[in-house]
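TA notes, week 10

Several of you asked for a full example with nothing omitted. So below is the full record: structure tokens for the whole chain, then the designed sequence directly under it. When grading your own attempts, check the secondary structure regions first.
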């Protein structure tokens, strides 16, 4: 079963482009968007299980230079997916 998560990422402003570029190369990343508002980047990921989700967040994403804070939203139900 695939787990889908939306991760809201707060970034140190001078490193926004660096963080954005580093996310493109990470496994499981399906979509990345820069946004206006409280958060700076939204990242959509799909993983096989919770262990891979934890590894992604704690070993790949959070150690990325420029990432200040993350908020992970687990998707419970997808209404429409193109």
């Amino acid at each position: 079963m695939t787990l889908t998560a939306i991760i809201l990422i707060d970034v140190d402003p001078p490193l926004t482009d660096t963080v954005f570029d580093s996310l493109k190369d990470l496994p499981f990343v399906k979509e990345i968007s820069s946004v206006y508002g409280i958060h700076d980047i939204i990242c959509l990921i799909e993983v096989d299980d919770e262990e891979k989700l934890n590894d992604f967040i704690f070993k790949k994403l959070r150690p990325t230079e420029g990432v200040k804070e993350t908020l992970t939203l687990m998707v419970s139900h997808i209404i429409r997916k193109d």
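Residues 14 and 22 are 14 Å apart (CA to CA). Use that as a sanity check on your answer.
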